[in-house]
Amino acid sequence: MNSVFKVNGLIAINKPVGISSAGALNFLKKVWFPIREDRTYDSLDLSQKTIQEAKNKEKSKRSKAQHLPWKVGHGGTLSYKAGAILGFSSDTLDIDGKITEKSEISHITEVDISNVIPKFKGEQVQIPPIYSALKVNGKPLYYYARSGKPLPIIDKKRSVHIHDIELDNVELISPKGSDHAKKMIELDNNLASFSKFHFSVSCSSGTYIRTLASDISSELGTCGLLYSLIRTKQGPFSISENGVLELSDAHKTKHVLDLIEHSTFVHNAYFSKNS
């Protein structure tokens, strides 16, 4: 952006695959708030008064955030489009992990999957993946998994609610010629050669879709892992309503300002209705 604007509001972002939330924010900061070479910085006053003021400000932000009914972790409803591969599982329960299990799938039919999916509507008990951000003793579970340290003994089961779940489509592929296990090497480049099912789900915050895909596969008598996931709706924001920002459009000043105005209006209307 070449001009300077004073803007107060919020904006919903559709984060692409392959970049973390922090990475997306850092990208936007570079686009919207480029560092000027002629800018000078005052020395930071680290007096106790300044530190306490900063803590109070952060505490106030957290207090306000807890009242956002759509916010992740605060009782909001989320919607996803997901895809799972049958016959394989990994330590992360998704395509990015190390394959830990292979299982037969020749007995599974599309009718079987259609009959199993509705069973997962309503209250469900999940065990979070070991590669997750769930904190134990002040550290996320993935810290223990990545560092090789033993997982703390805790009751990891948690109750979640699946408001709605529907099967979108099924692709059952019979391996030909090459061994099914060998085909896993081609997973990143040849997804078309694997049996998959796709589903849409609306659920409570705290639901692990990786775990859901794995549990559905287990109910089918095999194992499975998540290979695609798109969050389509969170609270009042939906990617189908053209109200979210694509990172590729971050440089379009008018578009960004319009979205900030739109997102702020949508949020305030939703907040007033649900407060």
TrEMBL record:
InterPro entries: PsdUridine_synth_cat_dom_sf, PsdUridine_synth_N, tRNA_psdUridine_synth_TruB. GO terms for cellular component: nucleus. Residues 79-209 form the Pseudouridine synthase II N-terminal domain. It comes from the Eukaryota. GO terms for molecular function: RNA binding; tRNA pseudouridine(55) synthase activity. GO terms for biological process: mRNA pseudouridine synthesis; tRNA modification. Keywords: Isomerase, tRNA processing. It is an enzyme of class 5 (isomerase). It catalyses: a uridine in mRNA = a pseudouridine in mRNA. Its EC number is 5.4.99.25. Pfam families: TruB_N. Belongs to the pseudouridine synthase TruB family. This is tRNA pseudouridine(55) synthase.
